[in-house]
Write a structure and sequence with these properties.
- A hairpin with a 5-residue loop joins β6 and β7.
- The protein has 173 residues and is of the alpha+beta class.
- It is rod-shaped.
- The protein is 39% helix and 28% strand.
- The chain contains 2 helices and 7 strands.
- It has one domain.
- The strands form 2 sheets. Strands 3, 4, 5, 6 and 7 form a 5-stranded mixed beta sheet that branches.
């Protein structure tokens, strides 16, 4: 009788150990699945940030560069009504609540995941250390700048959205 009881108790103990091992295995699978999803989400967030930075850099390149030998900032009609992606001094666009379409922003190379707009913040501000009376060069022909806010918006394949903003100054004369 004792050996029968011992065989029965060893079966119960074996079953308990088997259930514990099964629970450990299931919890390890759930943990690794969660970590996999987190890593994937981080990759999509990074992709959106990279797209936003590329869009902002394209906006800086456009405002600081030239097309056909004429500086873009002088030719951009910032004083007229707002043109797609170029906002006047009083426009004050809200990057978080606006709809990012071709009417309100510029797509970089036709890529809708990379968009930017340029907002004129100030015109003809005198550079602080450019006057001859405070030690600046007397030969400096231009000592005034226009200041622009450039906002880049990037999206990823799964819909993550990131914004990057910079302020950019260009000589205005």
């Amino acid at each position: 009788m004792d050996s029968l009881l011992q065989r029965g108790s060893s079966l119960i103990i074996s079953m308990i150990i088997l259930v514990i091992l099964m629970l450990l295995g299931v919890s390890a699978m759930v943990t690794s699945d969660t970590a996999f999803k987190l890593a994937g989400n981080l990759q999509f967030q990074d992709s959106a940030l990279n797209n936003a930075e590329a869009a902002m850099a394209a906006g800086e390149e456009w405002i600081g560069g030239s097309t056909g030998g004429v500086e873009n900032f002088r030719n951009a009609a910032f004083s007229a009504t707002t043109v797609g992606g170029l906002y006047t001094l009083a426009a004050e666009p809200d990057s978080l609540n606006m709809t990012w379409t071709d009417d309100s922003s510029v797509a970089v190379g036709g890529n809708s995941a990379q968009r930017y707009f340029i907002d004129l913040m100030s015109e003809n501000n005198q550079l602080l250390t450019s006057g001859a009376d405070i030690g600046g060069r007397t030969s400096a022909a231009c000592n005034k700048v226009n200041t622009y806010r450039i906002v880049g918006r990037g999206t990823s394949a799964r819909g993550a959205v990131k914004f990057v903003e910079s302020y950019y100054s260009v000589l205005s004369c």
